[in-house]
Structure formats: structure tokens, C-alpha cells
Amino acid sequence: MLSPTIVTLTMNPALDITTEADVVRPTDKVRCAGARYDPGGGGINVARIAHVLGASVSAIFPAGGPSGDLVTRLVHDAGVPLRQINITDPTRESFTINERSTGKQYPYIYVYIYGYICIDISYMYIHMYRHVLIYVY
């Protein structure tokens, strides 16, 4: 087997979760459609596109927890040769709601602290509303 021409190293991969809703309002429940899961992070994105374009590529990235397992499976399922480095903390997740009525996107980024708490801070209504969710693993 020949060595790949392109090798990407993604130091901070993500499980990108995207869904859509008719409208997003502060303090109201958001009724979302089914979610789409994609492997993310700069190097993984480059490797996926390079592979689609026919380049010889390999992706290297750290991954941990159920989210890391899913990122690894999604990269593999895309046909991209990979080397996953096991880590103890879960791979980060990003969550985006696409609002159908306006075409706006509302991204949420999870921040992991001490390996078992993550905080999601949404700035979707920066002057009116700040939403903080705390998850304990």
C-alpha cells in the first residue's frame, strides 16, 4: 500500500449535529426535525473533501467517548483512511439549529471542563437572552 499524499492532523475534532426548526424563540421549546451527524474539525473536513476529489489522503485525530466513536465511524464510513488516537475525554460536540423561516443559523458549542462537565453557552439573542445548559457525565 502506498503512503498517502495528504495527511491531515485534527487536534480538536467535533461531532457536528445539525437540525432545523420553523422558528427559534428565547424561552420557548424548539421543535426540531431529525438531526444530521457529521464528522467535523478542520483537518477532517479537508480529508473528506480531498478524498471525494480523488486524492490519496489519511486523517489523524484524537477521539474519546461515544461522540468520538461516532466521529471515527463517520470518517470511516466516508471512505477516508484514518488513524484515531484514543483519549479519555469525550470528543467535543457542536449543535446547530437552522431556522427555516429566516434562514439564520443558531450554533451552540459545548465546552468540556474537568472531563465530566460541559457548558453550552448560546449567544443567539445576545442583548435579550443568554441560555446556559450544564450537562454532567
Would you give the CATH topology? UDP-N-acetylmuramoyl-L-alanine:D-glutamate ligase
Going by CATH, what is the homologous superfamily? Ribokinase
Annotation, overall tally of beta strands: 9
What is the alpha-carbon Rg in Å? 17 Å
**Percent in strands:** over 45%
Average pLDDT level: 83
Give the distance, in angstroms, between the N- and C-terminal Cα atoms: 41 Å
The shape, in one word, is elongated
Sheet of most strands:
6 strands, mixed
Proper CATH architecture: 3-Layer(aba) Sandwich
Number of folding domains? 1
3D structure, described in words:
By secondary structure, the chain is of the alpha/beta class. It has a single domain, classed as UDP-N-acetylmuramoyl-L-alanine:D-glutamate ligase (3-Layer(aba) Sandwich), CATH 3.40.1190.20. It has 2 helices and 9 strands, in the order E-E-E-H-E-H-E-E-E-E-E. The termini are far apart. The C terminus is likely disordered.
Write the topology of this structure.
Layout: E1 6-9, E2 14-21, E3 36-40, H1 42-52, E4 57-63, H2 65-77, E5 82-86, E6 92-99, E7 105-113, E8 117-125, E9 129-136
Parallel strand pairs: 1-4, 2-6, 4-5
Antiparallel strand pairs: 2-3, 6-7, 7-8, 8-9
Tags for this model:
disordered C terminus, UDP-N-acetylmuramoyl-L-alanine:D-glutamate ligase, six-stranded mixed β-sheet, 2 helices, elongated, three-stranded parallel β-sheet, 137 residues, alpha/beta
Can you summarize this structure?
The chain is an alpha/beta fold and 137 residues long.
